[in-house]
Write a structure and sequence with these properties.
330 residues, eight-stranded mixed sheet
C-alpha cells in the first residue's frame, strides 16, 4: 500500500459568530490517492465547499479551522505558514472556483493573468510564459488566440476551461474543483466534464470535485463522498454506491434525480430540510427526515461503520446487527 496523496483527519471548521459558533465541518476524515477522482455530493449547506476551502487553506473569517490535520504529500497544511502555502498553491495543488467570471480579473487579459500566476512561482522569460500559456489553453480545447481576450469576451464554458487551464500551468498533483459546472447548460457541462476526465487521465493529477449533481459524479468519479450536516454520511466506490446505496440519505438523493434509462419512476425527494448547524440535534442528524429511523437514533452518537469496501454513518450497519433496508444488500 502506498501512502495517500492527501489525508484529512478529523478536520473541524467553525464559523465564529458573536453569540454562538456554527460547526460547519465536524471531524471529517478522508483520503485521496494519486490520480484518483473523488466526487463530493450533498444538499446546499452540508459543508462541501467549506471542506474544499479548508483543505486548500483558503478559508477567510469568520471561518476557522479549530481541529484536525490536512496532510498533503506528507505536509500538514493546517500548520504551514501563509508564505509556505503560497509556494505550494498552483505548483503543487490548484483550486478551480465555482464562478469563473468572478474568479478571473475582468480588467486583465487571459495572458496577463496566466503570466501573473507563472511569475509568482517560476522564473521564465516572456516567450516561455507565452508558450506555456498557449500550451495549457490547447489542453482544454481553446485556441491560443484567446490569450489576448478579456473574460467578458469568452463564453461561460470557455471561462471555466480557462480557469482549469490556469490550474494546470504547473501540472499540480491535486486539483480541487468547487462546482465548476453549476452555471453551464447540459451540453457545455458534459463537454467540460469529459475534458476534465481526459486531462486527469492524461496528466495523472488527483481531483476532488464538489457538486450537488449526482448524475455528474456517477459518470466521472472513482469514489463518492456523500455529506450531510457537516459530516460524511457515506463513502465508497461510485458504481457500488449507485447500484446499492447504503445510507437512507444517499438513497433519498438517488430518488431525487431522474434517469433517462430504465423504467419510469416517481421522483420522491427527501421531506424536510437539513438541521440548523448552530443547533444540531443529539444522535443522528438525519433522523427527523429518515424513513428507516429507530428510537436509539435519537440519542446514540454515530460513527462510520465499514461495510465491505464502503463506510457509512448509520445504525442500520452497527456491527451488522440490523438487517439492511428492504430491497438492498449489505
Amino acid at each position: 500500500m502506498t501512502d495517500p496523496l492527501l489525508e484529512v483527519t478529523d478536520l473541524t471548521v467553525d464559523y465564529q459568530a458573536e453569540y454562538a459558533d456554527v460547526r460547519a465541518l465536524d471531524h471529517v476524515s478522508l483520503s485521496v490517492a494519486a490520480g484518483e477522482f473523488l466526487g463530493v455530493v450533498g444538499e446546499s449547506g452540508c459543508g462541501k465547499s467549506t471542506m474544499l476551502f479548508a483543505i486548500a487553506q483558503l478559508l477567510s473569517p469568520p471561518a476557522v479551522v479549530i481541529g484536525g490535520s490536512v496532510k498533503f504529500t506528507g505536509k500538514d497544511m493546517v500548520r504551514l505558514s501563509e508564505t509556505e502555502l503560497r509556494h505550494m498553491r498552483w505548483r503543487d495543488y490548484a483550486v478551480v472556483m465555482q464562478s469563473a467570471m468572478n474568479a478571473l480579473n475582468p480588467m486583465k487579459t487571459v495572458a496577463a493573468q496566466f503570466a501573473d500566476a507563472i511569475r509568482a512561482h517560476a522564473k521564465m522569460t516572456a516567450k516561455e510564459i507565452r508558450n506555456r500559456s498557449a500550451e495549457v489553453l490547447r489542453l482544454v480545447g481553446i485556441d491560443p488566440a484567446h490569450l489576448d481576450s478579456y473574460p467578458h469576451q469568452l463564453s461561460g464554458g470557455m471561462r471555466q476551461r480557462t480557469m482549469i487551464a490556469m490550474a494546470l500551468l504547473f501540472t499540480p498533483q491535486l486539483v480541487l474543483m468547487d462546482e465548476p459546472t453549476s452555471a453551464l447548460d447540459v451540453v457545455a457541462q458534459r463537454a467540460l466534464m469529459r475534458q476534465i476526465k481526459e486531462l486527469q487521465v492524461q496528466l495523472g493529477f488527483a481531483v476532488i470535485f464538489v457538486t450537488h449533481d449526482m448524475s455528474v459524479v456517477s459518470h466521472y468519479s472513482d469514489r463518492v463522498m456523500v455529506m450531510y450536516a457537516g459530516q460524511p454520511a457515506e463513502v465508497g466506490g461510485t458504481r457500488r454506491m449507485f447500484t446499492s446505496p447504503l445510507h437512507p440519505y444517499t438513497r433519498g438523493l438517488m430518488d431525487a434525480f431522474p434517469s433517462i434509462r430504465g423504467a419510469r419512476r416517481e421522483l420522491t425527494g427527501i421531506p424536510g430540510s437539513p438541521p440548523d448547524l448552530g443547533h444540531l440535534p443529539p444522535g443522528c442528524r438525519f433522523m427527523p427526515r429518515c424513513p428507516e429511523a429507530m428510537p436509539e437514533c435519537a440519542t446514540r452518537s454515530l460513527e462510520m461503520y465499514t461495510v465491505d469496501d464502503a463506510e457509512v454513518r448509520c445504525l442500520l450497519y452497527d456491527g451488522q446487527s440490523h438487517q439492511p433496508p428492504v430491497g438492498e444488500t449489505a
